[in-house]
Amino acid sequence: MCAVLLLTGCAKEFNQVYKSDNYQYKYEYAKECFARGKYTRAISILEGIVTMLKGSQNGQECLYMLAMAEYNNKDYETAAEYFRKYYSSYPQGDYAELAKFFVGQSLFMSTPEPRLDQSQTLSAITAFQEYLDIYPMAVKKQDAQDRLFALQDKLVTKELHSAQLYYDLGNYFGNCNSGGESNFLACIITAENALKDYPYSSLREDFSVLLMKSKFELAENSIEAKRMERYQDAEDECYGFINEFPDSKNKALAEKFIEKCRKYTKGIGESESDN
Predict the structure, then answer these.
(1) Nearest-CA neighbor of 61 among 33, 99, 25, 16?
(2) Cβ contacts of 179-188, under 8 Å, gap ≥ 24
(3) How do residues 198-253 score in pLDDT, each as one tens digit?
(4) Which one of 52, 161, 238, 250 is at 20 to 30 Å from 9 when CA atoms are compared?
């Protein structure tokens, strides 16, 4: 019964504040709600007064608090918009640097898992890079850099999933011109681009394995006119893999591919010399 009465009393108080024309009274109530973690109530009040308080002594704090309330309430897309609005309205404001950081942080919190579209990830990267450019000695410099590395890892993982998909499609003719060639070529191109764009990625070995396997399969599935060149390319790739990852669990696979490639290239070479 006491709990019901308390809730009823709180709801009554909120309704009184919400209907009030006293903006200062509303602002102080919203601050109290925010401090107590009642973010939904704080948002309801702040949304109604933020425009009215613009230009006043409490205007910028009101807008920043609204943005933080949305962030703490896990509505990250709305939070990002309010943080952007704060920075646009008060570029020299008391919370300008933090607002700029939280644009990126809000976008970071709403990025999807790597298999999905990464447009939001790219937007978050741009936001953090802008923050570091504007504030090179930023209070949250390390946090921003850590987020950038995490976001780049998502993009790399996305590329790895794409390369793996192409490899797994293999000889699926519905996606190829002939013999599964375009699937393996697509895997090679995707892996090579990822290694070029992210040379220090922790997933470098994973891309290299796919690259090695795809080049071998490409040679295996090629027309006769292209096989020699492609077996030689696959063999070179395998040697490069062993040199870069001498302790890899896939070293034996690379050696197996080298042996198979050499059987073809050596056999053709001997046949030509006999002629």
Answers:
(1) 99
(2) 179/221, 179/222, 179/223, 180/217, 180/221, 181/218, 181/221, 181/222, 184/214, 184/215, 184/217, 184/218, 184/221, 185/214, 185/218, 187/163, 187/211, 187/214, 188/214, 188/215, 188/218
(3) 999 999 999 999 999 999 999 999 989 999 999 999 999 999 999 999 999 999 99
(4) 52
Q: How many CA atoms lie within 13 A of 207 on its CB side?
A: 24
- What does the alpha-carbon distance between residue 191 and residue 198 come to, in Å, rounded to a whole number? 10
Burial 199-224 (b: 16+ CB within 10 A, else e): eebeebebbbbbbbbbbbbbbbbbee
Query: Longest C-alpha distance within the chain, in Å?
Result: 102
Rg (CA), the chain: 29
pLDDT tens digits along 167-203: 999 877 655 554 446 799 999 999 999 999 999 999 9
Residue 234: Cβ within 10 Å count? 26
Report d(CA 37, CA 108) in Å as an integer. 22
Please classify residue 29 by burial: count the beta carbons closer than 10 Å to its beta carbon, then call 0-12 exposed, 13-18 middle and 19+ buried.
Answer: buried
What gap in Å lies between CA 55 and CA 64, rounded to an integer?
A: 13
Q: Which residues have a Cβ under 8 Å from the Cβ of 210 and sit 6 or more positions away?
A: 160, 163, 164, 167, 187, 191
| Half-sphere exposure for 62 (CA within 13 Å, toward CB) | 25
CA distance 251 to 165: 23
- State the Cα–Cα distance between residues 87 and 100, nearest whole angstrom: 6
φ, ψ (nearest 5 deg) of residue 263: -60, -40
pTM of the model: 0.81
